[in-house]
Protein 1
Amino acid sequence: MKKVKITVMRIARYDDLIEKYENPIEHSCDMSLGQSFTSVDGKRPDGFCDSAWDSVLPFVSELARGGGNFYDGWMKNERSAMISCNDGFRPVSFLLEAIDE
């Protein structure tokens, strides 16, 4: 299996939606712009958000197995994907890239 690099490319925050709909929480997303993780054998890297992992897992698994070319040419690099986590209040966009080693 290939390793997959996961890089935080964008972090958004919708304070108007948080104020209107979300109950106060003590711990939310602690990702940093440019932060990167490496998935080995398709496994969740240490410190990677559980909820975000649910969103990226199918794509990481496919890239780790040597696949790619999602949605018939969606990405310029067919061995990559741009996936956002499913947090509607604080979505984070991740670039997933298969690593050749």
Note: The chain has two helices and four strands.
Protein 2
Amino acid sequence: MSDILEVLKNRLFLIACLLTAIAGFIFVTLSDGEAMFIIPGAIMVVLGFVLLISGYITPIVSQSKTGMAIGAFLLLGSIIGIAGIFTVNVLDAGFMMIIAGPVIIALGCLAWPCICCQGSKAIRSQVIGIASAHDQISMVELSNITGASVKLVSEIVYDAIGKRELSGRMEGGTFVRSAPSTTTYSAASTTREREIVKVLVICPYCGAKTEQGIGKCQNCQADL
């Protein structure tokens, strides 16, 4: 039972997107040709499937706490909209529910692109950062800290180890960080001293000594 609940929780966003598309289909089907139902219904169908595909290819975001919150928002809007379309002729609030449902869905859809673009890198960085800060940490603990599912954090950790972004190994459901290397490297530097021997030339005119390579005597200025 707990496994089923865990799967449903991780798939909440995808389920909500599918229900959004179904709600839109119901709007179109029961519209009786009225544009005020057909237009929002068609938009809900399109948005539902677009978000469904987006959430499926970015599980790192859709299975996070933020993704689940957006999913709950979409789910609420879909239920309110479906309830409104079936009770519009029975309850006075039915018409308001028909309006409120698509509005709630629209707000969730507007928030999703920003979350999707920024969420993937943020969650991955958070998982890697927390894992690297512990000598060892279980995937369950990592999931509780980050809010991502156990499956998702496991995939991130395995991928990070493969890409050498994490130094360590997986032992069952626990990440064990590698101990820092204690090997030290010392570079011996050698200093070589070279003795420079100066060759002096004796001036044939005044007998003064001048370094070889100088064209004139430093004493009498005669050519050497």
Note: DSSP finds eight helices and five strands in the chain.
